[in-house]
Amino acid sequence: MAIDRSVVEKxxxxxxxxLEPDEVERFTGQLSVVLQAVERLKDVDTEKVSPTASVLPVxxxxxxxxxxxxxxxxxxxxxxxxxxxDGEFFRVQHVLEERP
Amino acid sequence: MNELPRSIRExxxxxxxxxxxxxxxxxxxxxxxxxxxxxxWLHLDDDYARKQARSADERLRHGDAPVLCGIPWACxxxxxxxxxxxxxGSKILEGYVPAYSATVVDRLDAQGxxxxxxxxxxxxxxxxxNENSAFGPVKNPWCADRVPGGSSGGSAVVVxxxxxxxxxxxxxxxxxxxxxxxTGVVGMKPTYGRVPRWGVVAFxxxxxxxxxxxxxxxxxxxxxxxxxxxxPNDATxxxxxxxxxxxxDLDAGVKGLRLGVPKEYFAVKGMEPGVERxxxxxxxxxxxxxxxxxxxxxxxxxxxxxxxxxxxxxxxxANLARYDGVRFGLRVEGPDLVETYRRTRGRGFGPEVKxxxxxxxxxxxxxxxxxxxxxxxxxxxxxxxxxxxxxxKVDALVTPTSxxxxxxxxxxxxxxxxxxxxDVFTLPVNIAGLPGISIPCGLSDGLxxxxxxxxxxxxxxxxxxxxxxxxRATQHHLARPKExxxx
Lengths: 100, 487
Fold this sequence. Notes:
The complex is a heterodimer of chains A (100) and B (487).
Chain A: H1 5-14, H2 21-38, H3 73-77, E1 85-86, E2 89-90
Antiparallel strand pairs in A: 1-2
Helix pairs in contact in A: 1-2
Chain B: H1 8-16, H2 22-34, E1 41-44, H3 46-61, E2 72-76, H4 103-111, E3 114-119, H5 153-160, E4 166-171, H6 177-183, E5 186-189, E6 209-214, H7 217-227, E7 258-262, H8 273-288, E8 292-296, H9 301-319, H10 337-348, H11 351-364, H12 369-393, E9 396-400, H13 416-420, H14 427-431, E10 436-444, E11 447-455, H15 460-473
Parallel strand pairs in B: 2-3, 2-4, 7-8, 7-9
Antiparallel strand pairs in B: 1-3, 4-6, 5-6, 5-10, 9-11, 10-11
Helix pairs in contact in B: 2-3, 9-11, 9-12
């Protein structure tokens, strides 16, 4: 299926990726070609077929619920971008508006 | 020592007869790796390698050292290594240093193997040419203006160029087997669920597996024995198979085995005559060795690509949601949180990753999910069933690994669909979760051709048996690129 710029812009928005105008242009053409190629799945009769959930012959995988050592706090913060740590917390920009 | 031994077995003999130390082996590998002219390495850690080599020598002196003790190896930079940078070939992870190692790395460490460093790859393993690395393309040692294949291009090249004795890669749709084919080495993808993925950067989780690059089939089996087996940290694994000695049948030959040849694989658009010729010659070798060849049909081969290019980007778009500039990696600040995410990801991801994030998000979006994702998973069920039927009749399949030999750098970079077609013979194997290996089967116009052998799930032993029989009957695995030797 051929798609237009608005489809690429919408999906990029959902994926939280900012694109330059020339990228939108280029990806629209390239992804149209790829989507046309995957269209052919319509030709396969899957009326009575279940979708694959896993290729493994396993269902639930359980283990004993025992306390084990994990990452230390310092290890967890070791790669934090500058300004991203506030004591024992990761700092993010505010997402809620203040009440008037 | 200027050149590395030809195999892990040869190196082991040198180490155990005291003709060379692990430290000498490591120094030789480091010297060659620093002279690498193919952009195959992202990070070499001499001090770490020397430290590991010294402890290996200690263990070798005390006897009963494991088979990989003192063997220098290379790690694809998508596999996490404690205290050693891990970038996945992406700007978004530049400077990232993991707090723990992947289980596969821990297992090789436990054997006393000596890690030299981290190898270049397509960003987040998305690519078939290694041109999508944020740190520049890898070149093919057989011809430096051609691609080495991808995504594990660096791992393939360091083995082909004699810089490391083996390497680890990851294979989601052919990312071990296709570069192995294009650089003339052995590359193997295990059955889905046999190798722990704890600590490996996730790409498409229903398809990804870790596996080895090596000089010989036996070496690949040795590495598999070291990394196979259940890990309590990975819930997507099968139970262990007791006493599954992968090398047990290496000398058994193929007499009486039934080998399937899928007719659709030779009708694929873009198949090069030189590749077909080399593979047909290989089939004749198997026949001469006593195997029974049977033409089989895998009628959904053409649909594999469509299934793959829905499932894989969909899973990737979910897995890569974690790169948001908050806890680790690149952060490009905007006026609000959503804008920070958008700028971070817009700046941090390269074009191929962006394309796949958009495609995957589109296929998962409300209104399209049933038509794309559910449909693809249904056709996946049919593809798996078709393999099941074929493996009732044959012990293994023999096919080309890739329709082409190494192509020029830049030739397909602006045509994603043409690039994706490189994996037409390898990705159905991931879709069905099967084990597959690529071994060298000769040259076409001076460039290596790969032969793929695929077995049923958990039948790695049969797969290695068939591959080893071919290797014994031919000399193709001994061919080495001329450009590998530093000037």
